[in-house]
Design a protein that fits this description.
The chain has 231 residues and is mainly alpha-helical. Helices cover 74% and strands 0% of the residues.
Amino acid sequence: MNKEKSVHKRAWIMLVLPPFMLALVSVIFGVAFFIFTSGDSSAIPNYFQSYMPFILAVNHLSLFFILRSFLKKDDLSLKDIGWSFDKEKLHIEILVGLALMFVLYLYNELVVEPIQAYYSGNSSDFSIQFAIREQISWPFLVTAATLPIVEEMIYRGYANKGLKRKHGAGFTIIVSSILFGTLHWGLGVLTAALIIPFGILFFLVFLIRKENLVAVAVGHCLYNTMVLILI
């Protein structure tokens, strides 16, 4: 198998793997919680809520090491999939990331939350909230602010490297964004579907920034941080 076919095959595996990996990690933690609580099923949801940052950390670190092994087998580096820093243009990447964060936040406030409210039977005033939460879960904040880096490497960088040449940019953007949405299955089917446009926007910015992941990763991390800090 030549290098191009190998990268193509592994890119598909890497795109499909994350939601299944998250399910597997969740099952492992669930079994551990079941043993720890002596089978008290009523206590297990609370443990999942408390330990979710650690579950996500284990999941994403596992995905990162799998990705690194794939890159090594195909003689590629993180730089080859877009993770590179240009000191002279770093300020531009940060500014683009900030702009992306605000666009994502507006989409969440004006589209995602109203739709969620409608389907849950609640009313929505389509207002934009900027009030800071009184209590912030720091473990959640740390994971939310860092783990998107792994997601960008997989769903934008590696997907672009493995799929675009054979299937074209349009196909790669749509498929990777849909699979990006499936990673968020824990938030419900509706939310996972509404996250697909996030993936499309991330990919477009990635291409606009000449296939550099820095601006997209900055925007993704900052957006997650903002969502957890603001009401």
